[in-house]
Amino acid sequence: MSESRVFALNGIGVQAVATRLENFFRSEKGMEVQSSQTTDGYVMQASQPKDGWKTLTGMRLAVTVQMTVMENHLNVTVGEGQWSDKIGAGAIGLFIAWPLAITAGMGAFKQKKLPAEIFQVIENCIMTGGQPVVVNGAGTAMTPGMMLCPNCHTQIPNGSKFCNHCGTKINNKCPNCGADIIDGSAFCADCGQKL
Fold this sequence. Notes:
By secondary structure, the chain is an alpha+beta fold. It is built from four helices and nine strands; from the N terminus they run βαββαββααββββ. A hairpin with a 2-residue loop joins strand 2 (32-38) and strand 3 (41-47).
C-alpha cells in the first residue's frame, strides 16, 4: 500500500528535501537510510535496525520514499513496508503470548502514521526554504526574511501581497493613513491606528 502527494518546490532543490528527510529518519526515528539520486529525483529506503526484540514484537518500522521532480513540483510516493512482522507477531500473540498482539497493533499504528509524518517533514522543509527551524517553548522561531500570515500563521516571505499557503491578501499598509506597516506591529508607527 502506498500514499502520494504533490508539493510545489518554491525554488528549493530536491537535494535539500532528501537531506532533511534522511536526517528525520536517522535522528527522530532511529532508522538506517539508503538513498540514491535518480535522473528525476530520489529513491530512499529507511528501516529500523533488525533486532530480535523489535521484529518479534512487530514494532520495527520500514518505509520506501520515491521523490520525482516534475517542473517545479515534487511528487512524493511513500510505500509502507514490514507488515509481515506485525502480522506474524499478531498471530503468535493471538495463540501463544497475548501481549505480542498488543505490540503488533502498536507497531501497525506507528507504521500507518509514518507517511503523514514524512509528508509533514517535506512540507516544513519546503516552507522554510530548506533552513532548519528552531522550536522553543514559545513556538517555532521566525526564519530571517519571513513574516507570518495573519490568517493561517504560516511563515511567508517579507513583502508578500498574498499568503502562498492559504491565499489571504496581506495588508502591508495602514488602513488609516496608508503608511508602510512594520511586520508584527500592533499599532501604526505614523498615526497610531490600532492594527
